[in-house]
Amino acid sequence: MGAMNLLVHLARLLNVVPVPLLDTQSQMLRARAVIEANRLGVFETLAAAPQGLTADEVAHELNISPAGSLVLLTALAGVGYLRQRRGRFVNGRWVKHWLLNPRYSLKNFLLVQSHSWQRLNDLGAVIESGRPVRDYYHDPAITPAESETFSEAMRDLSRLLLPEFLKRARLPAGARRLLDIGGGHGDYGRALARRHPGLAPTVLDLEHQIRAAQRAVEAKGDPLDVEFRVGDALTADLGTDWDVLLMVNLVHIFSPDQNGALFRRAREALRPGGVLLIVDQLLGVSRTRDGVAALISLNMFSIGGRCYRWQELERLLREAGFRHVRLKPFSVTVASSLVEAWT
Protein backbone atom coordinates (compact mmCIF):
# COMPACT_ATOMS: atom_id res chain seq x y z
CA MET A 1 0.00 0.00 0.00
CA GLY A 2 2.86 2.39 0.74
CA ALA A 3 4.27 2.07 -2.79
CA MET A 4 0.81 2.46 -4.31
CA ASN A 5 0.10 5.59 -2.28
CA LEU A 6 3.41 7.05 -3.40
CA LEU A 7 2.60 6.31 -7.03
CA VAL A 8 -0.84 7.93 -6.70
CA HIS A 9 0.73 10.99 -5.05
CA LEU A 10 3.25 11.36 -7.86
CA ALA A 11 0.53 10.86 -10.46
CA ARG A 12 -1.49 13.64 -8.83
CA LEU A 13 1.48 15.98 -8.93
CA LEU A 14 1.99 15.20 -12.61
CA ASN A 15 -1.73 15.67 -13.27
CA VAL A 16 -2.04 12.36 -15.11
CA VAL A 17 -4.87 10.93 -13.00
CA PRO A 18 -8.45 12.28 -12.66
CA VAL A 19 -7.85 14.17 -9.40
CA PRO A 20 -11.46 15.40 -8.97
CA LEU A 21 -12.65 11.80 -9.17
CA LEU A 22 -10.07 10.66 -6.61
CA ASP A 23 -10.99 13.53 -4.28
CA THR A 24 -14.73 12.86 -4.44
CA GLN A 25 -15.73 9.27 -5.09
CA SER A 26 -12.60 7.56 -3.77
CA GLN A 27 -12.05 9.74 -0.70
CA MET A 28 -15.75 9.82 0.14
CA LEU A 29 -16.08 6.04 0.07
CA ARG A 30 -12.81 5.50 1.93
CA ALA A 31 -13.95 7.84 4.70
CA ARG A 32 -17.39 6.31 4.95
CA ALA A 33 -16.00 2.78 5.05
CA VAL A 34 -13.74 3.64 7.99
CA ILE A 35 -16.51 5.53 9.82
CA GLU A 36 -19.00 2.68 9.45
CA ALA A 37 -16.49 -0.01 10.39
CA ASN A 38 -15.61 1.96 13.51
CA ARG A 39 -19.28 2.46 14.39
CA LEU A 40 -20.12 -1.21 13.89
CA GLY A 41 -17.17 -2.46 15.94
CA VAL A 42 -15.38 -4.23 13.10
CA PHE A 43 -11.89 -3.39 14.31
CA GLU A 44 -12.48 -4.55 17.91
CA THR A 45 -14.06 -7.76 16.62
CA LEU A 46 -11.01 -8.52 14.50
CA ALA A 47 -8.67 -7.59 17.36
CA ALA A 48 -10.26 -10.32 19.47
CA ALA A 49 -9.29 -12.92 16.86
CA PRO A 50 -5.53 -12.72 16.16
CA GLN A 51 -5.83 -15.50 13.59
CA GLY A 52 -8.26 -13.35 11.61
CA LEU A 53 -11.90 -13.82 10.71
CA THR A 54 -13.77 -14.50 7.50
CA ALA A 55 -16.41 -12.06 6.31
CA ASP A 56 -19.11 -14.54 7.36
CA GLU A 57 -17.64 -14.79 10.86
CA VAL A 58 -17.55 -11.00 11.21
CA ALA A 59 -21.15 -10.84 9.98
CA HIS A 60 -22.18 -13.38 12.62
CA GLU A 61 -20.37 -11.54 15.42
CA LEU A 62 -21.84 -8.14 14.51
CA ASN A 63 -25.26 -9.32 13.34
CA ILE A 64 -24.88 -7.76 9.89
CA SER A 65 -25.41 -9.26 6.46
CA PRO A 66 -22.68 -11.57 5.10
CA ALA A 67 -22.78 -9.74 1.77
CA GLY A 68 -22.40 -6.35 3.43
CA SER A 69 -19.61 -7.66 5.63
CA LEU A 70 -17.65 -8.97 2.64
CA VAL A 71 -18.01 -5.75 0.65
CA LEU A 72 -16.98 -3.58 3.62
CA LEU A 73 -14.02 -5.72 4.68
CA THR A 74 -12.74 -6.01 1.11
CA ALA A 75 -12.93 -2.24 0.68
CA LEU A 76 -11.03 -1.67 3.94
CA ALA A 77 -8.37 -4.15 2.87
CA GLY A 78 -8.11 -2.38 -0.46
CA VAL A 79 -7.20 0.94 1.20
CA GLY A 80 -4.85 -0.52 3.81
CA TYR A 81 -6.95 -0.53 6.97
CA LEU A 82 -7.17 -4.32 6.96
CA ARG A 83 -5.05 -7.15 5.59
CA GLN A 84 -6.49 -10.24 3.94
CA ARG A 85 -4.89 -13.69 4.17
CA ARG A 86 -6.51 -16.73 2.61
CA GLY A 87 -9.98 -15.35 3.02
CA ARG A 88 -9.41 -14.14 6.59
CA PHE A 89 -9.16 -10.49 7.59
CA VAL A 90 -6.91 -8.93 10.23
CA ASN A 91 -6.37 -5.34 11.32
CA GLY A 92 -3.69 -3.29 9.58
CA ARG A 93 -1.10 -1.15 11.33
CA TRP A 94 -3.12 2.08 11.09
CA VAL A 95 -6.00 0.46 12.94
CA LYS A 96 -3.74 -1.06 15.58
CA HIS A 97 -1.99 2.25 16.25
CA TRP A 98 -4.71 4.89 15.82
CA LEU A 99 -7.91 3.07 16.77
CA LEU A 100 -6.99 0.21 19.12
CA ASN A 101 -3.99 1.53 21.05
CA PRO A 102 -5.44 3.33 24.13
CA ARG A 103 -2.60 5.83 24.06
CA TYR A 104 -3.46 7.09 20.57
CA SER A 105 -7.00 5.86 19.87
CA LEU A 106 -9.26 8.14 17.83
CA LYS A 107 -12.22 5.79 18.00
CA ASN A 108 -14.55 8.29 19.69
CA PHE A 109 -13.44 11.07 17.37
CA LEU A 110 -14.52 8.94 14.40
CA LEU A 111 -17.93 8.49 16.03
CA VAL A 112 -18.28 12.28 16.08
CA GLN A 113 -17.24 12.34 12.42
CA SER A 114 -20.37 10.33 11.71
CA HIS A 115 -22.47 13.23 13.05
CA SER A 116 -20.40 15.69 11.02
CA TRP A 117 -21.06 13.65 7.89
CA GLN A 118 -24.81 13.99 8.38
CA ARG A 119 -24.58 17.70 9.12
CA LEU A 120 -22.56 18.37 5.98
CA ASN A 121 -25.50 17.23 3.88
CA ASP A 122 -26.68 20.82 4.33
CA LEU A 123 -23.34 22.43 3.45
CA GLY A 124 -24.62 23.70 0.11
CA ALA A 125 -27.47 25.58 1.79
CA VAL A 126 -25.06 27.03 4.36
CA ILE A 127 -22.69 28.28 1.65
CA GLU A 128 -25.55 29.82 -0.33
CA SER A 129 -27.17 31.56 2.64
CA GLY A 130 -24.11 32.24 4.79
CA ARG A 131 -26.06 31.03 7.81
CA PRO A 132 -25.52 27.81 9.79
CA VAL A 133 -28.25 25.20 9.82
CA ARG A 134 -27.40 24.22 13.39
CA ASP A 135 -25.96 26.05 16.38
CA TYR A 136 -23.98 23.05 17.56
CA TYR A 137 -22.71 24.79 20.70
CA HIS A 138 -26.19 25.58 22.03
CA ASP A 139 -28.24 22.80 20.41
CA PRO A 140 -30.85 21.66 22.99
CA ALA A 141 -31.42 18.45 21.01
CA ILE A 142 -28.01 17.03 21.94
CA THR A 143 -28.59 13.81 23.90
CA PRO A 144 -26.55 12.61 26.91
CA ALA A 145 -25.10 9.87 24.71
CA GLU A 146 -23.95 12.44 22.13
CA SER A 147 -22.43 14.57 24.90
CA GLU A 148 -20.58 11.54 26.23
CA THR A 149 -19.23 10.69 22.79
CA PHE A 150 -18.20 14.28 22.10
CA SER A 151 -16.43 14.56 25.45
CA GLU A 152 -14.53 11.33 24.85
CA ALA A 153 -13.73 12.45 21.28
CA MET A 154 -12.13 15.61 22.64
CA ARG A 155 -10.12 13.45 25.02
CA ASP A 156 -8.97 11.44 22.00
CA LEU A 157 -7.82 14.64 20.35
CA SER A 158 -6.16 15.91 23.52
CA ARG A 159 -3.82 12.91 23.53
CA LEU A 160 -2.43 14.15 20.21
CA LEU A 161 -2.22 17.81 21.20
CA LEU A 162 -1.12 17.70 24.85
CA PRO A 163 2.56 16.82 24.27
CA GLU A 164 2.91 19.73 21.82
CA PHE A 165 0.93 22.04 24.10
CA LEU A 166 2.98 21.28 27.21
CA LYS A 167 6.25 21.88 25.34
CA ARG A 168 5.19 25.41 24.43
CA ALA A 169 2.77 26.73 27.06
CA ARG A 170 4.30 29.37 29.33
CA LEU A 171 2.53 30.41 32.53
CA PRO A 172 3.03 33.42 34.80
CA ALA A 173 5.44 32.79 37.66
CA GLY A 174 3.60 31.43 40.68
CA ALA A 175 0.34 30.86 38.77
CA ARG A 176 -2.37 29.51 41.09
CA ARG A 177 -5.72 29.81 39.30
CA LEU A 178 -6.62 28.49 35.83
CA LEU A 179 -9.99 28.69 34.06
CA ASP A 180 -10.45 26.35 31.09
CA ILE A 181 -13.31 27.86 29.07
CA GLY A 182 -15.21 25.21 27.13
CA GLY A 183 -12.77 22.68 28.56
CA GLY A 184 -15.14 19.73 28.90
CA HIS A 185 -13.06 16.81 30.15
CA GLY A 186 -10.49 19.05 31.85
CA ASP A 187 -7.40 17.14 30.69
CA TYR A 188 -5.47 20.27 29.69
CA GLY A 189 -5.90 21.83 33.13
CA ARG A 190 -4.89 18.57 34.80
CA ALA A 191 -1.77 18.32 32.66
CA LEU A 192 -0.73 21.90 33.43
CA ALA A 193 -1.37 21.37 37.14
CA ARG A 194 0.95 18.37 37.11
CA ARG A 195 3.64 20.55 35.54
CA HIS A 196 2.98 23.48 37.90
CA PRO A 197 2.36 22.38 41.51
CA GLY A 198 -0.07 24.68 43.26
CA LEU A 199 -2.06 25.45 40.10
CA ALA A 200 -5.78 24.79 40.63
CA PRO A 201 -7.74 24.14 37.39
CA THR A 202 -11.40 25.01 36.90
CA VAL A 203 -13.47 24.02 33.85
CA LEU A 204 -16.37 26.13 32.58
CA ASP A 205 -18.65 24.47 30.04
CA LEU A 206 -22.27 23.82 29.14
CA GLU A 207 -24.29 21.61 31.45
CA HIS A 208 -24.37 18.54 29.22
CA GLN A 209 -20.59 18.66 28.75
CA ILE A 210 -19.95 19.13 32.46
CA ARG A 211 -22.17 16.18 33.29
CA ALA A 212 -20.36 14.02 30.73
CA ALA A 213 -16.99 15.04 32.17
CA GLN A 214 -18.10 14.32 35.72
CA ARG A 215 -19.37 10.89 34.73
CA ALA A 216 -16.02 10.14 33.11
CA VAL A 217 -14.16 11.21 36.26
CA GLU A 218 -16.42 9.04 38.41
CA ALA A 219 -15.94 6.06 36.10
CA LYS A 220 -12.18 6.36 35.57
CA GLY A 221 -11.07 8.33 38.57
CA ASP A 222 -8.32 10.95 38.61
CA PRO A 223 -5.93 11.78 41.42
CA LEU A 224 -6.02 15.48 40.62
CA ASP A 225 -9.19 17.37 41.43
CA VAL A 226 -10.69 19.69 38.83
CA GLU A 227 -13.51 22.04 39.71
CA PHE A 228 -16.36 21.94 37.18
CA ARG A 229 -18.66 24.92 36.65
CA VAL A 230 -21.71 25.07 34.41
CA GLY A 231 -21.75 28.12 32.16
CA ASP A 232 -21.97 29.40 28.60
CA ALA A 233 -18.64 30.67 27.27
CA LEU A 234 -20.44 33.55 25.55
CA THR A 235 -22.51 34.79 28.48
CA ALA A 236 -21.26 33.37 31.80
CA ASP A 237 -19.59 35.51 34.44
CA LEU A 238 -15.93 34.56 34.12
CA GLY A 239 -14.96 36.08 37.44
CA THR A 240 -11.71 37.96 38.06
CA ASP A 241 -8.09 37.53 39.10
CA TRP A 242 -7.37 34.41 37.06
CA ASP A 243 -3.70 33.75 36.33
CA VAL A 244 -4.41 31.64 33.25
CA LEU A 245 -7.36 31.33 30.88
CA LEU A 246 -7.45 28.47 28.40
CA MET A 247 -9.47 28.03 25.19
CA VAL A 248 -8.79 24.80 23.29
CA ASN A 249 -10.60 24.23 19.99
CA LEU A 250 -13.17 26.82 21.02
CA VAL A 251 -12.43 29.89 18.92
CA HIS A 252 -13.28 28.15 15.63
CA ILE A 253 -16.83 27.47 16.85
CA PHE A 254 -17.70 31.18 17.07
CA SER A 255 -18.05 34.17 14.74
CA PRO A 256 -15.61 37.12 14.76
CA ASP A 257 -18.06 39.26 16.76
CA GLN A 258 -18.60 36.49 19.30
CA ASN A 259 -14.87 35.95 19.68
CA GLY A 260 -14.20 39.66 20.00
CA ALA A 261 -16.67 39.91 22.87
CA LEU A 262 -15.30 36.72 24.45
CA PHE A 263 -11.72 38.04 24.31
CA ARG A 264 -12.77 41.32 25.97
CA ARG A 265 -14.41 39.40 28.81
CA ALA A 266 -11.35 37.19 29.07
CA ARG A 267 -9.08 40.23 29.34
CA GLU A 268 -11.19 41.61 32.17
CA ALA A 269 -11.13 38.26 33.98
CA LEU A 270 -7.32 38.01 34.03
CA ARG A 271 -5.12 39.60 36.64
CA PRO A 272 -2.30 41.92 35.50
CA GLY A 273 0.43 39.73 34.08
CA GLY A 274 -2.01 36.90 33.34
CA VAL A 275 -2.16 34.96 30.09
CA LEU A 276 -4.82 33.63 27.74
CA LEU A 277 -3.74 30.41 26.01
CA ILE A 278 -5.55 29.54 22.76
CA VAL A 279 -5.10 26.27 20.89
CA ASP A 280 -6.73 26.13 17.47
CA GLN A 281 -6.22 25.47 13.78
CA LEU A 282 -5.11 28.72 12.14
CA LEU A 283 -4.62 29.90 8.59
CA GLY A 284 -1.62 31.94 7.55
CA VAL A 285 0.88 29.95 9.65
CA SER A 286 2.36 27.71 6.96
CA ARG A 287 1.32 26.27 3.63
CA THR A 288 1.14 22.75 5.04
CA ARG A 289 -1.15 23.76 7.90
CA ASP A 290 -3.28 25.99 5.67
CA GLY A 291 -4.51 23.03 3.64
CA VAL A 292 -5.81 21.25 6.73
CA ALA A 293 -7.14 24.37 8.46
CA ALA A 294 -9.05 25.46 5.36
CA LEU A 295 -11.00 22.19 5.28
CA ILE A 296 -11.67 22.32 9.03
CA SER A 297 -12.89 25.88 8.49
CA LEU A 298 -15.44 24.65 5.96
CA ASN A 299 -16.75 22.19 8.55
CA MET A 300 -16.91 24.87 11.26
CA PHE A 301 -18.68 27.29 8.91
CA SER A 302 -21.62 24.89 8.84
CA ILE A 303 -22.16 25.54 12.58
CA GLY A 304 -21.51 29.28 12.53
CA GLY A 305 -17.75 29.45 13.04
CA ARG A 306 -14.59 29.09 10.96
CA CYS A 307 -10.83 28.86 11.29
CA TYR A 308 -9.15 32.24 11.56
CA ARG A 309 -6.08 33.65 9.95
CA TRP A 310 -3.36 34.14 12.53
CA GLN A 311 -3.20 37.86 11.70
CA GLU A 312 -6.97 38.24 12.23
CA LEU A 313 -6.84 36.47 15.58
CA GLU A 314 -3.93 38.65 16.67
CA ARG A 315 -5.92 41.77 15.74
CA LEU A 316 -8.99 40.63 17.70
CA LEU A 317 -6.85 39.94 20.76
CA ARG A 318 -5.08 43.29 20.61
CA GLU A 319 -8.39 45.09 20.14
CA ALA A 320 -9.60 43.31 23.28
CA GLY A 321 -6.72 44.83 25.24
CA PHE A 322 -4.03 42.15 25.21
CA ARG A 323 -0.59 43.73 24.93
CA HIS A 324 1.68 40.85 23.99
CA VAL A 325 0.41 38.23 21.52
CA ARG A 326 2.68 35.41 20.41
CA LEU A 327 2.20 32.54 17.94
CA LYS A 328 3.75 29.13 18.68
CA PRO A 329 2.97 26.58 15.94
CA PHE A 330 2.87 22.91 16.85
CA SER A 331 4.87 20.41 14.79
CA VAL A 332 3.73 19.80 11.22
CA THR A 333 2.22 16.44 12.21
CA VAL A 334 -0.39 18.39 14.21
CA ALA A 335 -2.28 21.12 12.36
CA SER A 336 -2.82 23.26 15.48
CA SER A 337 -0.99 26.20 16.99
CA LEU A 338 -0.73 27.81 20.41
CA VAL A 339 -1.37 31.52 20.79
CA GLU A 340 -0.31 33.30 23.98
CA ALA A 341 -2.02 36.61 24.79
CA TRP A 342 -0.63 38.43 27.83
CA THR A 343 -2.24 41.29 29.74
Automatic annotation (TrEMBL):
The domain of life for this entry's organism is Bacteria
Q: What is this protein called?
A: Methyltransferase domain-containing protein
Mind telling me which SUPFAM superfamilies this protein's record contains?
A: S-adenosyl-L-methionine-dependent methyltransferases (SSF53335), Winged helix' DNA-binding domain (SSF46785)
Keyword Transferase in record:
yes
Q: Where is the active site?
A: H252
Domain O-methyltransferase C-terminal: start-end pairs: 143-323
Q: Which GO BP terms apply?
A: methylation
Note the Pfam families from the entry.
Dimerisation, Methyltransf_2
Q: Where is the O-methyltransferase dimerisation domain?
A: 36-87
Q: Which InterPro entries match?
A: COMT-like, COMT_C, COMT_dimerisation, SAM-dependent_MTases_sf, WH-like_DNA-bd_sf, WH_DNA-bd_sf
